[in-house]
């Protein structure tokens, strides 16, 4: 197993910057990745939900992984989402991603066709058996309509089928159960939370790291939070998390759009306002945030965001 199999710390799910005509903006992608690495993150995850995997053609997926591998150049581990409807399609993505040099892959449960518990278990067993790099299970029931069972996940970890779990379920009770079962089994899994608002609580439960979309906007904050956790500095953890929770309000500030478009749209808008990406463009059928929604993000950034100057006049 590669070092990515024991990966802990802050692993941002990297945004996919687009040009106005919705092609990959390579120059902006370089700025995003280099800024994250400079902040001290422990790995990078492309083609997650924040990275627009559900919108990407196969050719765009390949381009994103290729460019990410080139830019990272071995400085931190690279994880790539291989998310698709069913096992055979995911295996094709695993083959393409590993050929491009990723250190680990991230997979959801199958979706579209109704899939029951034993088939979900078998799905991860197949991926684990056939992937040449570690597999992380991605628990995101809002998107795939399946909640991964904590006991099953720990069993898969003990068997070596998966190396860890990226938990974006928003279910703190289930995550606590997963942490307890993982600890009782000798911690075969690396547990990563994708819940921006309560990373400190996840650490208290037994998480080993975080995969927060907001870390694109404020990587230093999540790195400070993780380092405070390692130092046992719970006061700093709480203070940093409170500020990050206030910053996460950017994802709830839009009035013209809700859901995914509001969340990732806000991340991209914040990065545009910080001068890191050139546009806040998003994939069709969504439209980029504009007008009052941009102003709302700007106001929150100014109040609680990273202490970086916001270029004037960006709309």
Automatic annotation (TrEMBL):
One BP term from GO: small molecule metabolic process
Entries under CDD domains matching the protein: DHDPS-like (cd00408)
A GO molecular-function annotation: 4-hydroxy-tetrahydrodipicolinate synthase activity
Keyword line: Lyase, Schiff base
Keyword Oxidoreductase: no
Coiled coil: none
A UniProt-annotated Pfam family: DHDPS
Keyword Lyase: yes
Residues that, per the record, bind pyruvate: 50, 211
Entry's family note: Belongs to the DapA family.
Protein known as: Glucose dehydrogenase
Organism: Mycolicibacterium wolinskyi
